[in-house]
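Async update (no meeting this week)

Hi team, since we skipped the sync, here's where things stand on the single-chain job. The sequence we agreed to prioritize is pasted below, unchanged from the tracker. I ran it this morning and attached the output directly underneath so nobody has to dig for it. Comments welcome in thread, and please keep replies under the output.
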Amino acid sequence: MVHFDLGNISTGPKDYYDILIIGGGPAGLTAAIYAGRAGLSAAVFEKALEGGAVTQTHVVENWPGFIRIEGGELGEKFAEHAKAFGAEIITAEVLKISYDNEYKYVELDNGKKVKGKVLIYATGAVPRKLGVPGEEEFRGKGVTYCAACDGYLFSGKDVVVVGGGDSACDEAHFLAKMVKSITMVQNLPYLTAAKVLQDRLLENKNVKVILNSLVKEIRGKDKVEEVVVVNNETGEETVIKAEGVFIYVGLVPKSDLLKGIVDINEYGYIKTDENMETNVPGIYAVGDVREKNLRQIVTAAADGAIAVEHAAKKYF
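Output:
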C-alpha cells in the first residue's frame, strides 16, 4: 500500500535516484507519480514553479474530470499527487546532463551532481518572440506573454493581442472582462483556434480582429504607447494606440541541455519513439519539448506515464 505524505518536500537531493526528472510540469509530475506507483525513487528538478507553465494559465477547461479549474490550482494538485507517491521535488536548475554505460548524471546550479539509472526530460517550451523593434525594450513595460499573470495591470486600457490560436483566443477572452478594448492581430487570413474558443471570444463586443497582418514595431517612450501593424497583401501600415501587447505566436522548445546528446529536429524538438525514448537508451523526452502533433496538458501527462511504464520494464 502506498503511504500518502503530502508534506514530502526534499531539503536537498540525494546522490542517487532511480529516475531523474527535469521539469516539474504536468509531464514531469505525472512521470513522478508513475515512478512511485512502480516502486521507483524519483527526483523532480524544477527551477521555477511546481506545476510548470500550467500554473500561469488562468483557467483550464480540457482536463478530464474538471469542467473548469484554475491553472494554478491544477498545478498544485499535480505536485501534491507526485509528493504523495514519494517524489522529491527539488528547487534547482540543471546546468548539464551527461551519461555513461550505467548512469545518467545531472549537474545542478548549487554544485551538486546527482545520478540516476533513467533520465526523463520534461522541460516544456517557452513563448516564441516576435523579434520586432520595441519588443525587448518594452518587456515588462507593456509587453507581456501571460494574461493570467499581468492582465490586471491593464484594467480599463486598450491592448493588442498577437496571435490567433487557442492560447491567443483563450487569453484574449480572459482579458476582455477587464480591459477597455482588444485588437487581435493574426498573420493568417483566419483564426486557428478551436471554434468554441473563437465563438466565445467574438461574443465580446470590445474585441476587434485584424487578419492577414503582422506587427512591425512596438513604440513608446517609457512604456508601450502604440503598435505598428502591416497588412501582408497590401503593405498598408496601421498604427494602433495601445498600452499593452500580449504575445501568443507559438512556442520554442527548451531542449538546449540535450543538444549534442540526443537527436533533435530542425525546430528544436526532441525526437523520440512511441515509448518517449530518445536515441540514447535510458533518456526519455516528454511533454511540449518532444516532437509531436498535439501539445496539451493531457498529452503531456500521457507522455510522462508512457515513459515511466516503459522504463520500469526495460531498466529495472
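Quick observations from my side:
The CA atoms of residues 188 and 212 lie 5 Å apart.
DSSP finds six helices and 17 strands in the chain.
Reply here if anything looks off.
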